[in-house]
Design a protein that fits this description.
Structural class: mainly alpha
Strand content: under 5%
Helix content: 40-55%
Shape: elongated
Number of strands: 2
Oligomer: single chain
């Protein structure tokens, strides 16, 4: 397996370490010639070990960068609200002093350009058309709207008053026990 064709960094690192182990086992002493260059076993192992060291250093640097990024994100999450409030405070304090705001790296708040009479008329017409299209009304207009029901007659229900039981209507036949009550 070549370092170029390996799919993961771990596989590439393992491939180079296997080359070092194989070189030390099968060619402990002597010289090897590849292309037009001659290497001793020690120089070849040193060359391969430099790749292992570089890969290990890269992995350590990536872990350190990841840790540093996580730390930075945590600190920014805590400090960002303070920065925003402080910037608003400075802008409110020195609103008319552009050089002082520049010392803080801030710009004065931009004042919106006034609308021309044509732009105001167009804006009002568009707002009116939008209200009509959506069917929205003001609070007073909504209170004036009452629903009308047609085709249905509403009859109020009155409960008849119950007459007190008379002595003649008392029955002497045993009735079924009422659930949940004890019988004697």
């Amino acid at each position: 397996m070549s370092i170029i064709t390996s799919n993961t960094k771990a596989a590439a690192l393992a491939a180079v370490q296997a080359l070092i182990a194989g070189t030390l086992k099968h060619f402990p002493n002597g010289s090897l010639t590849f292309g037009n260059t001659t290497y001793t076993s020690a120089s070849l192992v040193t060359l391969l070990q430099s790749v292992v060291d570089a890969m290990t250093a890269l992995n350590a640097a990536r872990l350190a960068a990841k840790h540093a990024l996580t730390t930075l994100q945590g600190i920014v999450a805590q400090v960002e609200p303070v920065i925003q409030v402080y910037e608003h405070f400075v802008q409110a304090t020195f609103a008319n002093a552009e050089p002082t705001l520049a010392d803080f790296g801030l710009e004065p708040p931009k004042v919106p350009a006034p609308l021309s009479s044509e732009e105001k008329a167009a804006s009002a017409a568009k707002a009116k058309a939008t209200r009509e299209a959506r069917g929205t009304t003001s609070k007073k207009q909504k209170l004036a709207v009452k629903g009308n029901v047609t085709g249905i007659t509403v009859t109020p229900i009155t409960a008849p008053t119950a007459a007190p039981p008379s002595a003649q209507t008392v029955s002497t036949t045993p009735s079924a026990p009422i659930p949940g009550t004890a019988t004697k």
